[in-house]
From TrEMBL:
Key word Ribosomal protein present: no
PANTHER family: CYTOCHROME C BIOGENESIS B-RELATED (PTHR30070:SF1), HEME EXPORTER PROTEIN B (PTHR30070)
Annotated transmembrane regions: 21-41, 53-71, 127-153, 160-181, 193-216
Gene for this chain: ccmB
Molecular-function GO term, any one: heme transmembrane transporter activity
InterPro entries assigned to the protein according to its UniProt record, in alphabetical order: Cyt_c_biogenesis_CcmB, Cyt_c_CcmB_bac
Species for this entry: Alteromonas portus
Protein name: Heme exporter protein B
GO biological process: cytochrome c biosynthetic process; cytochrome complex assembly
Ranges in coiled-coil conformation: none
Pfam families, per database record: CcmB (PF03379)
Family: Belongs to the CcmB/CycW/HelB family.
Top-level taxonomy: Bacteria, Pseudomonadati, Pseudomonadota, Gammaproteobacteria, Alteromonadales
Length: 221
C-alpha cells in the first residue's frame, strides 16, 4: 500500500510543480464560460437556459487539455515501464493515477462552480443538480479518458487523436447531465438521470482500471 501512496504523492507533487499546465485547463474553462454569453446573448433567461450545457462542454474540453499528461511523464522517463516490471498491480496503479488526476483537474472546477452558476444566472435547484452531476460525471471523464490516453501515450502528437476518440464517448454523459439540470429548472425530479450517470460511473470504476492497464501494455509493446 505504501508503494501506491508513493505514486499518488509523486503525481500530486509533479502536478503542483508544473503550475502552468495545472492552471491552463482551468483558465480555458473560465474563458469559455466568460466568452460564450458575449457571443450568444447576455440575457439572464438565455444564460439560465444554456448555462448547464456551457459549463459541461467547457469541463469536457478543458479535461481533454489536461488528460494528455496523465501518463506522459511516466512514459517519457521510464517510470511506466518500471511499474510493469516491479510486480505491482497495474490496474491499481492506474486507479491511483486516475484519482490523482481527478483531484488536480476537477476539484478546482467544483470549487469554482458557485461562481460559474452565479455568472450564468442558475437557480439554487439548478446549481444543486449541476454539482451532483459534476460529482458523478467528472470521475467518469477521468476513468474513460485514461483508457484513450493509455492507447495514445506513445504517439508524438496524440492530442488530436485523443479528442477524436473521447468526444463521441462523452456525448451520453453530456446529455444526461444537462437533462438533469434542465429538469431541476422545471422543478421536475431528476433522480433517473443521476442514477444513470451513477451506474455508468460504477461500471467504469469496476472495469476501467483493467482496460487502462491493458492499453498501457499495448502502448509499451
Amino acid at each position: 500500500m505504501s508503494l501506491y501512496q508513493g505514486i499518488f504523492k509523486r503525481d500530486m507533487h509533479i502536478a503542483f510543480k508544473q503550475k502552468a499546465e495545472l492552471v491552463q485547463p482551468l483558465m480555458f474553462l473560465l474563458m469559455v464560460v466568460t466568452l460564450f454569453p458575449l457571443g450568444v446573448s447576455p440575457s439572464p433567461d438565455t444564460l439560465q437556459r444554456i448555462g448547464p450545457g456551457v459549463i459541461w462542454i467547457a469541463a469536457i474540453l478543458s479535461s481533454l487539455m489536461a488528460m494528455e499528461r496523465l501518463f506522459r511523464d511516466d512514459f517519457q522517463d521510464g517510470s511506466l515501464e518500471q511499474y510493469m516490471l516491479s510486480g505491482m498491480a497495474l490496474p491499481a496503479v492506474s486507479a491511483v493515477k486516475v484519482a490523482a488526476h481527478w483531484l488536480v483537474s476537477f476539484v478546482p472546477l467544483l470549487l469554482l462552480s458557485p461562481l460559474l452558476a452565479m455568472f450564468l444566472n442558475l437557480t439554487v435547484d439548478m446549481y444543486i443538480a449541476l454539482v451532483l452531476t459534476l460529482l458523478l460525471g467528472t470521475p467518469l471523464l477521468s476513468l474513460i479518458g485514461a483508457i484513450a490516453v493509455g492507447l495514445t501515450v506513445g504517439l508524438q502528437k496524440g492530442g488530436v487523436l485523443l479528442a477524436l476518440l473521447l468526444i463521441p464517448v462523452f456525448i451520453p454523459l453530456l446529455i444526461f447531465a444537462t437533462s438533469a439540470v434542465d429538469s431541476a429548472a422545471l422543478q421536475l425530479p431528476y433522480h433517473a438521470q443521476l442514477a444513470i450517470i451513477a451506474a455508468m460511473l460504477l461500471l467504469a470504476a469496476a472495469l476501467a482500471p483493467f482496460a487502462i492497464a491493458y492499453s498501457l501494455k499495448v502502448s509499451q509493446n
